[in-house]
Specification:
The protein is an alpha/beta fold and 452 residues long. It has helices at 23-36, 53-66, 79-88, 121-132, 151-157, 178-187, 221-227, 254-268, 282-290, 301-304, 334-350, 355-366, 382-390, 437-447, and strands spanning 10-13, 42-47, 70-76, 93-97, 106-113, 146-147, 168-171, 194-195, 232-236, 243-247, 250-251, 273-276, 294-297, 314-317, 321-323, 371-378, 398-401, 405-409, 412-418, 424-431. The strands form four sheets. It has a six-stranded mixed beta sheet, with helices on both faces. Strands 8-7-9-10-11 form a five-stranded mixed beta sheet, sandwiched between helices. Helix 8 crosses helix 12 (355-366). The protein is globular, with a radius of gyration of 22 Å.
């Protein structure tokens, strides 16, 4: 088979063949995982609501049990719940059937080690080698299947926050986060959120969002309309590991939300923080101001959660991923992050303020604006487009880093990289002031051949 582990496991289009996601390739992956874990190990398996996810989870379970690995089924759960339960229980691996925010035609497998962290590069290479090897016949032994309801313990372990009379709008984007998030809000004393009606129930076709990523144009239109009458709008992606935030008419960027959450976490738990090389430099400035260690990692939470030797108290990536409680979930978690955002918004409302006021205060303290953005190009060969861009650096810019490819000019910075989960080239923009972003965006679009 030709499927390989990317920045978040294996993702591919559903269909027949060795480079597609189907019962055969899933069984091959499961056999590789079974040969990677020690004999007699236990693995926790969960799945989202995508086409085939429940069946693929059954395929993985049968393959593991037949090879002497205890299969514990968590059933239909958000990805952060599976990551939490993997760490909390006595498991050697956690396996989540999900393609997160990919289009409806895709599915995938995300694999966690026994600490609840995504496989690191060495572990992923070992599993890939095991998957590529010959698939031995089923042994004679077949273990019984076990069931785990992981949600109650996850809810109990969420950060303790003080609820308040906050008016909220919410969408799970046709995904599996809605009910768990509703329970989290209720347990914390928040009123129920108004939910975007035509995105409320899990639907593997994603009828209102062909690309169900909160960053994609148009995906949050329903939420924005509902949030006009609310204090706060929140969106999860379909497996609820990412979070988008709307305040009034403004949708905050991942870097803006990351700075707000970092300051909130550090106010209670000072300690090491981290973000990725494509995120804003604002977290580094906040860390210096708060006197805590800071580092940058490569993109992906497999790197972020291992920063500072595992002593991380907060990490985020600009692509709407936040790890606000690494001791509970060693991955991005849109549910716990959403709970903290609600708590901040409730505090601000009680003082006659909004999250925008809180953000402006932080920016004034740091002497910067968190002015970042993205240009994304879907294309069949992102690496070829990247190579073409590298041959024609924009006037006035110079190459400042080779990996990821970065060009800079004064306080303007552009980073290019091919997505690890979808066929697209991503350009990450940063300037010193928000008003300069449109000019930089136009320059980058022209550079990459998108000029109108």
């Amino acid at each position: 088979m030709s499927l390989t582990f990317g920045t978040a496991g294996v993702r591919a289009e559903l269909g027949a063949g060795p480079d597609r996601f189907n019962d055969g390739t899933v069984a091959q992956i499961a056999a590789g995982i079974a040969s990677w874990v020690p004999p007699g190990a236990a693995a926790l398996i969960g799945h989202d609501a995508r086409h085939g996810s429940a069946r693929f989870a059954d395929v993985v379970g049968r393959e593991l049990r037949a090879r002497g690995v205890t299969d514990v089924s968590a059933g239909l759960v958000p990805t952060p719940v599976l990551a939490f339960a993997t760490r909390r229980g006595d498991y050697t691996a956690g396996i989540m059937i999900t393609a997160s925010h990919n289009p409806a035609a895709d599915n995938g497998i995300k694999v966690y080690d026994g600490t609840g962290a995504q496989l690191d590069l060495e572990q992923a290479a070992e599993v890939e080698a095991a998957i590529a090897g010959p698939r031995a016949p089923f042994p004679a032994v077949t273990l019984p299947r076990r069931i785990l309801d992981a949600v109650p313990a996850y809810l109990e372990a969420l950060p303790q926050v003080q609820g308040g009379p906050l008016v909220m709008a919410y969408t799970p984007l046709h995904g599996v986060g809605g009910e768990v998030f509703a329970q989290a809000l209720r347990r914390s004393g928040f009123p129920a959120a108004a939910v975007v009606t035509n995105q409320a129930a899990p639907d593997p076709d994603f009828p209102t969002a062909p690309f169900p990523n909160p960053e994609e144009p148009g995906v949050l239109d329903g939420l924005r309309a509902l949030a006009r009458e609310a204090d706060l709008g929140l969106a999860h992606d379909p497996d609820a590991d990412r979070l988008a935030v709307v305040v009034g008419s403004r949708t905050l960027t991942g870097d803006e939300v990351g700075l707000l959450l970092a300051d909130d976490v550090l106010s209670r738990t000072p300690g090491p923080v981290a973000t990725t090389v494509v995120s804003s430099s604002a977290l580094a400035m906040l860390a210096r101001r708060r006197g805590v260690p800071y580092t940058e990692t490569l993109t992906g939470f497999r790197h972020l959660v291992r920063a500072h030797g595992g002593q991380l108290v907060f990490g985020y990536e600009e692509a709407l991923g936040y790890c606000v409680a690494p001791g509970t979930v060693r991955d991005k978690d849109g549910i716990s992050a959403g709970l903290l955002v609600c708590a901040m918004a409730a505090q601000d409302k009680a003082r006659g303020r909004t999250l925008l006021d809180r953000l402006a205060g932080l920016e004034a303290e740091l002497g910067i604006e968190v002015a970042t953005g993205q240009v994304n190009i879907r294309c069949p060969d992102p690496e070829a487009l990247l190579a073409k861009a590298q041959a024609t650096v924009p006037p006035g810019f110079t190459e400042s880093r080779a990996d990821p490819y970065t060009v800079s000019s004064g306080d303007r910075r552009v980073i290019l990289r091919a997505s690890g989960t979808e066929p697209k080239l991503k350009a990450y923009l940063q300037t010193g002031r928000r008003r300069d972003l449109p000019t930089l965006r136009a320059l980058v679009e022209g550079w990459l051949g998108l000029a109108r």
